[in-house]
Amino acid sequence: MAKLWSGLLVLGIALAFTPNEAYATIHNLTATLDGSQANAGAGTGSPGTGFATVTYDDSTGFLSWNASWSGLSGTVTVAHFHGPALPNQNAGIQVGISVPSPSIGSASIIVSQANDLLDGLWYLNVHSTVYPGGEIRGQVQVSVLVTTTTSTTTTTLPALCGGSPIGGCRGSEAGKSQLQIKLKASDPSKNQLKFKYKKGDATLLTEFSDPVSGSADYRLCIWDGSAATQPLLEAAVLPGGTCGTKPCWKATGTKGFKFKDKTGTPNGIQQVKLKADGTAGKTQVQVKAKGLKLSAPTLPLTTTVTAQFVVDDGAIECWEVPMSATLKNDTVQFKAKGD
Prior knowledge:
There is one protein chain. The chain is mainly β. The chain contains two helices and 23 strands. It has helices at 7-16, 111-118, and strands spanning 22-34, 49-57, 62-70, 76-82, 93-97, 103-108, 123-128, 136-139, 141-150, 178-182, 192-200, 217-223, 233-237, 242-243, 246-247, 249-251, 256-260, 269-275, 283-290, 305-312, 316-323, 328-329, 333-337. An eight-stranded antiparallel beta sheet has the order 16-17-18-19-11-10-23-22, with no helix packed on it. β18 (269-275) and β19 (283-290) form a beta hairpin. The longest helix is centred in the first third of the chain and has 10 residues, at 7-16. The two termini are 19 Å apart.
């Protein structure tokens, strides 16, 4: 069993959910787009231009944007925030945004993404039928910081997953668990992720804590063997709450819990199923995520890929699937079964 006590982590969780005077910094950023910055500064010669205002709230982890463009040579197909990269570099997709212009939206990002964003290492790239790799581009730069004070509970979610997988997690029978990621560059709202942990090591139902009425932290985290900033994904599922008119979480008899949120707040996870009765081979964890709030990792991935479902309720419990071989691994789809 993985019970990794961390006084600092427990303190961080307590502070994050303790009602008191909380300070939130709103980071205001802008991006000016044109053809000269596209293709890592090599330029496209496009007459098109664009401008985006971007805000990042470090108390909620939410990124918001209002982007517009005009005068492009081709029809706009997709647009994304990319990074980390300097102006003369290209990088993978961090967050997809809707088209056509103007594009107004928001998404939750993890701490490592926010650090890159605030260091000026993200750029906004607008792709078109004439320039599929990007017709106009602009580096996202910090303009103004606004600190606000509130008397309500802050919902900052401290990172649970560090630069490498957590040790001592429960495993599962070889070949029974699976991770699948599908990306659609032309419509990032259809990006999706499915994680299935089956035939897992013995787990008591209480070791999932109580997502219905408790305060535990739930995360799905993914690492790979590349030199990229890790983890590639840290997606949160909040305990309790109401989704629409119904509770987000519910107990399924005496052996499990289910979560459903069509909005995928905050990181794109829409469904979770947890099942355990203390018997080896009976433990299951299933997670489904999709949409623009899902900050899906850039594909392909580098093996070994490790996915972990993590629960922190003062003590950390985790269930992991390491994958050293893949069934599919290209720029649009990753699929692998657990070792």
